[in-house]
Amino acid sequence: MEISLNKVIRAISIALDLSQMSSVDGTNIIEEVSNINYTKHNFMNHSLRTCYVALEIGRELNLPENTLQMVYISSLLHDIGATNFFNISHYSHDFIYEHSVIGSKITKDFPLLNGLSNIILCHHENFDGSGALKLSGNSIPIESQLIRIADLIELNFNEAKPSLVQKDRIIKWIREYSDKIYSSEIKDAFLRCSKKDAFWFNLENLNSMGFILDSVAPKINQTINLAQLEKIAYIFSNIIDNKNNHTASHSVSIADLAYNLSKSINYDEEKCRKMKIAGLLHDIGKLAIPVKILNKASGLSPDEFKIIKSHVYYSKIILDRIQDIPDISNWACNHHEKLNGTGYPRALRAEDLSEESRIMAICDIFQALTENRPYKNGFSIEKAIRIMDEMCNKNLICPYALGNLKKLIGYNGI
Which residues form the HD domain (predicted)? Predict the structure, then answer.
C-alpha cells in the first residue's frame, strides 16, 4: 500500500494549526527579540502561510529543489512541538527553547525525512547568535533561517485586514531586524518578493485557495507504506493523549484493542494494522478542542459538550486530507455514531456503519468505561459489559462486535 507523503504532511499541518488555535489560552507569550505577542495571533493557516513565504524567499535565493523540498516539509511541521505547550504558563524564552526541543524529539524518527529534526530544533535561532541555542550565521541550517523569517512575517500578518494595507508596516519591521534575526541576504530576497502585489494577495487568500501553495510547492513524490504510516500515527497518538490530562494512553490502548479484536475475528494482517492506525488516530480532532474544556475535571456544561463533540468532525477533516486511506478515516471517525442514528457527527444509521466502524466504537466505549481518569476510577469489566449490553438493547451499538469483544477478554457473563 502506497500513501502520499505530501498528503500526510499537509494533513498534519492542518492538525497543528487547529491545535495552536485551541491552545492559546490566557498565556502571555511575548518573544523579547522580535517583540511579537504570540497570544494575540490567530494560528489558523499559520503553517500554510509560513510555508508559502519560506518557499517564495527560497526560490528567490535560487535554492536547489531538494533544499526547497525540506523547506516545504519543515515549515509545514515547524510548530509540532507547540501542540501541547500553550496551556502552561511560560516565559517566552522557555516556550521558544522547549517547543523547539520537543519538536526536534518528536520528528527524530519521522520516516524518510533525515535532517527534519535538526531544522525544527534550530527554527527559532537568530542570525546574530542571540537565540536559545546560541547558534549563529550559517551554522543555522538554511531551512531553519527561512522558517525563522517566514514565521515572523506570518505572525506580523493580520488576516482580518487587506494584505496591501499591511505591506509597508511589515516591510519596515523586516528592515529593522536585518542581521539580527536573519541575514541581510535573506532580508533582501524577501524585499524582492515583497515588491510583487501578487505575493501579498497570495498571502491573504491562502486560507480559501489551497492551490496557491500547490503552485509554488516543490514536487514531493515519495510515498510511505502502512508500517511508516503506523509510525507517524504513534507519534500523533502521543501528542493527542498528552494534550488531554485525563487520557495518558487512551489512543494506544484503543489501537491495541482494535488490533487484537480484529485478529480474533480473522481479519488479514493488513486490515488489522489499518484498524490499529485508526485507533491511534481516532481522536486526532481533539487537537482542535480548547484545552480548558478538554482538561476540565468536573462535568461539562451542555455547551461545552457540544464543543467536545466536534472533535470527530475535525478528525474526519484531517484524515480525509490524506485521501489514500478512506477506509482508515471512516473507521476512525465513526466511533461516536450509533446504529439507530442518534450518534454524531453525521447521524449515520446501521446500514451506513461497516463492521470495522462498529468494532472501533465498541473498543472506544469499552476503553472509556474501564480506564482510570484523574477524577474517577474506571468501572470493572463486569459493570462495563452490563452498560454495553444495555446499549445493545437500545440499538446503539453492535451486538456482534460486543460478542467478539467478550470472547477476546474471556468474559463469561458471570
Answer: 247-369
Question: Which neighbouring-strand residues pair with 376?
Answer: 373
Q: Map out the domains of the chain as residue ranges.
A: 3-216, 226-409
The predicted structure's pLDDT at residue 351: 97
- Position 82 confidence tier, pLDDT thresholds 50, 70, 90: confident
Q: Average pLDDT of 318-323? A: 95
For domain 3-216, the CATH class is mainly alpha
Cell numbers given for 100: 523547539
- pTM over 0.85? The answer is yes
Q: How far apart are alpha carbons 258 and 279 in whole angstroms?
A: 7
pLDDT tens track for 227-239: 999 999 998 888 8
**Residue 369 pLDDT grade (very low, low, confident, very high; cuts 50, 70, 90):** very high
Give dist(CA 133, CA 139) in Å, integer. Answer: 11
What class is the 226-409 domain? Answer: mainly alpha
The helix-helix angle for 5-23 and 226-243 (nearest 10°) equals: 0
> SS3 of 42, please?
coil
Q: Specify the range with the lowest mean pLDDT, choosing from 174-178, 338-342, 363-367.
A: 174-178
Q: In the block, which residue shows the cell 500515527? A: 233
Would you give the DSSP letter of residue 397?
S
How far CA 171 is from CA of 149, 182, 342, 396, in Å, comes to: 12, 14, 53, 58
- The span from the CA of 13 to the CA of 52, in Å, is 13
Q: Which is higher by pLDDT, 211 or 53?
A: 53
What values do phi and psi take at 169, rounded to 5? -65, -45
Write the burial class of residue 82 (CB in 10 Å: 0-12 exposed, 13-18 middle, 19+ buried): buried
Residues in the chain: 414
Indicate if 226-409 has the same CATH topology as 3-216. Answer: yes
Per-residue HEC secondary structure of 232-292 comes to HHHHHHHHHHHHCCCCCCHHHHHHHHHHHHHHHCCCCHHHHHHHHHHHHHCCHHHHHCCHH
C-alpha to C-alpha distance for 127 and 137, rounded to whole angstroms: 5
Residue 283 and residue 311 in contact, taking contact as beta carbons nearer than 8 Å: yes
Q: Which residues are CB-contacts of 268 (< 8 A; sequence separation ≥ 6)?
A: none
